[in-house]
Amino acid sequence: MRRIALALLMVASGLGGASAGSGLDKLVVVTSSGPHPFNVEVMHGTAELERGLMDRRFMPADHGMLFDFAETQPVMMWMKNTYIPLDMVFIDKTGHVINVAADAQPLSLAIIPSAKPAFAALEINAGIAAKIGIKPGDVVRDALFHNQ
User: Fold this and answer.
1) pTM for this structure?
2) Per-position DSSP letters for 66-111, written without gaps between them
3) Count of structural domains, the chain
4) Cβ neighbours of residue 11 closer than 8 Å, sequence gap 6 or more
5) What's the sign of the alpha-carbon dihedral 13, 15, 21, 26?
6) CATH number at residue 111
7) Are 95 and 118 a contacting pair, CB within 8 Å?
8) E strand or H helix at 40, and its extent?
9) Rounded CA gap, 27 and 40, in Å?
10) Pairing outcome for strands 63-73 and 86-91
11) When you count CB atoms within 10 A of the terminal residue's CB, does the N or C end of the chain come out lower?
12) What is the pLDDT along the chain (148 residues), one digit of tens a residue?
């Protein structure tokens, strides 16, 4: 139950200013249209997961945030204190996309669940998942998934 409550606290917004994350990581989403690189902040631990991209107002198109849940679990997120629309990409431990929640509405308290238990979630600007064709089964390459 604690994990679900923690996941409910995770929020996102735009990228404007440094967060508590561990700096920028190079991540690649491989879709049927090819590899798509992103610069991401990786969030680990309760405090970083709770803070996420909260209260930010801008995120460059090639940036995002990767949430490391440290174990596979049901994940529920929301957009409280989130000022820009986002796509949420839920990912399993091997780096395969589980599902995409597209166009999450800013400031909404609606719950956004992963379709199945997830190991991580990638938040990117709304519309990018559709633009590059992210779909279940695609691969996210990052050190977190040991698949670079």
Assistant:
1) 0.84
2) EEEEEEEE--EE--TT--S-EEEEEE-TTSBEEEEEEEEPTT----
3) 1
4) 52, 53, 54, 77, 78, 79, 80, 81, 82
5) positive
6) 2.60.120.1140
7) no
8) strand 34-43
9) 7
10) unpaired
11) N
12) 334 333 443 433 333 333 444 479 999 999 999 999 999 999 888 878 777 777 889 999 999 999 999 999 999 998 989 898 999 999 999 999 999 999 999 999 999 999 999 999 999 999 999 999 999 999 999 999 999 8
DSSP classification of residue 46:
H
Spatial separation of the C-alpha atoms in residues 50 and 96, rounded to whole Å = 24
Cα angle, residue 51 at apex, residues 49 and 55 outer, rounded to 5°: 145
Range of the domain at 15: 2-145
Tell me the two tokens of residue 45. 């631990």
Q: Is the dihedral of CA 125, 45, 68, 41 positive or negative?
A: positive
Per the structure block, which two tokens stand in for 28? 């690649």
